[in-house]
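As the next step, I needed to go through one protein, both as residues and as discrete backbone shape codes, included below for the reader:
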Amino acid sequence: MTDENFSMKRSRSQLATIYAPGAFFTFEGGMGACIAHPAARIRADLTDMLKNQIVDSINERVRNWEAQGLNCRREGGQPPVDPELVLDAQLRNDGGVPRLQGDRLAFLVPDVMNYVPEPLTFVCRRCRLMKDFRNAEDFETRGSTLEEGCPLFLRNEPCQANWEQLDVVQVHWSGGYQRISTLYNRWDRDRQDIVWNRVQCHCGNPHFLLDRTAPTFSKWRLICSACNSATELPVLKDPTSLRALGEGIAQGRHQLVEVNMEPVSYRANSAYYVQGDRVLALANEDYFPLLLRGRTEDLKNFIAKSYSYPVLEIAEADIENTLREKNRSQEWLSYRQYAEMAALMKQANRLDLAEASVKAQQDQLDRWRSEGLIPDVYQRTPALNQAVEVRGSEWNRKFDPIRQAIEHKTLEIDVLNDGSKVINVKEPKEPIIPDMTAAEVDVTKRRISDLLSMLGVEDMRLVRKFPVCEFTFGYSRVESGPRVVRDKTGDTWEMPVKLNLFPRAYFHEEHVQPIYVMKQDNEAFYVRLDETCVRAWLDANGIAYTLPAPNSRLGAALIDGHDTINPGGHGFSSWLDEYRGNATADSRNLCSYVYTLLHTMAHQMMHSVAQVSGLELGSLTEHIFLPDLAFVVYRRGTTMDLGYLSSAWRMATSPTDGSLILSSMLDPTSLRCGSGALCDERGGACPDCILIPEVCCITRNNLLSRSVLRGMAKPHWDVAIPRDRNIEGYFEVVRRLRRAAPQAA
């Protein structure tokens, strides 16, 4: 046995997450605890645009992590946070600006991962003797000494060795870990360094048994194998934190709670949290460059045109000159005749004819605009100018509605407008429709259209290949976010969790910083809500918003209002703290309600798909396009996609039900929570409701409430209205609109 790395193969998704560098794991059967080390064999084939998106996403995570970590809440007298304990050293380079450059990274395919046995602490099942080793090489050197200190051996009885690896390690939020052993450490003020020693019994015996009979780790004891004296198992201090805070502890500024490591099973989630994200791997590059800093004017024009901001009036002289240059003077004369006729009819008090002439004149203008003869010049409101100017530095990339607008436009060009890549569920065809007669197909289409109408859905399509790129780049321990809270000294200490990059990997004769990338083109459902229904729902719940122009799309108000979501501005925060425990009256706003509606409906659809298809919820995830009132539910993972979603839709389709996936979303039983109180009475969500695994959810299960669909208790973060006040559900409002439609007709 040597200290070299061993290699293993798993699915790419597993290697990039469960078995990513720094993760503890056991092989099948629970035998043999190991820790994963980085490996590199194949470079991922990515476009420069996709690489830039990944780097931008990492840099934003770093900036947000640093801001959260450095601003931990500290009570009076508690010292400020040490920056060294917030970010990996490589992330603090470049003159103090936390930033990674693309040329420092290696984008790799996670096809293999290395590992070594760890922790190398063993306990005898017979006599409870405990032995530990630094690494595999140390074990190979001293493995023959395992029997030393065995109580049976000391009584001249044969040793009945039966060794097992101890499944507990000590971890710290700095990212470090240590094996359970008789080692302990402290800060030496004279040496200005850490001193390590081993526990030794008063009788001089260095060998101990491990008493694990107590149910809690704090009551585990070391028992001398010679005299049976008991002593406490030492709690190690994290070396990284101790070097940064040791002198402060000696002087009384810092406390041991900041450096003491915590015992945890290496199977527990808190032992390791992989850090990563996902971006859309769209090919078209016409619109993504608009997000670059030098393209702000073009970006403003794109948003203003896409969401129908006010159109500036064009002088009639300019229109006339344009038409004469195009040899279309006769059309200009007709346009003027309509204007003159309208004036004459008003004087004659024939308002009906005057209105008809004005309409004819406007129709002529619209035709010229559609032909491109008269280009539209859109007015960029102050709110839009502000949004475009601040988004790059202040808005969270994941929730940025302007980025989502660019993504949606690119998705339209790349996928939605290509009939070979999508199937409209209102016009089903192979492979999403079972064998039926022509009459049955017609009935099925009508039922599906009716269900979509009652769901308030304007457009729904099956996307054959939804291009997504998932990646992982680092890890944290104890907590998945940038802060951890402990209360062990009478005071509450909020401390930073360190964001660590993966260790470097050896690739093509050099050490590189690995970013593990997984591209996938799995099936997806694209859904866009009916804007008329969404507006009616907002009005029914008294959610105020202002459109830049009467004919503007709701997306304009969502973009204009994103920066004013919370008192500090800057839109949604990375971890949505303002919607978890720090809600204010400002939490009730247009963006939060519309996002919750889209997000909750996406989860409702995932649950329906899972029930019909048998797919696990952990294999599904979502992407939200807030300003376009759209979302995508898609299959996650890099295994071969065997058409699971199309198969699920086909199996759920029939003339009787239309589509069980859609009908189950409207089923009252699917809109009730099994636990009751949390969702139905407090306007939240729970594991018995519409939650999915946090690693799959784009918001880690925040901004969810079934109340926005069915109506009942207000969302828990809406503190602007009375606690006992219910809200109207989207499905209720849509039902009223559909019932009123025939009467209005």
In short: The two ends are 82 Å apart (CA to CA). Residues 464 and 523 are 5 Å apart (CA to CA).
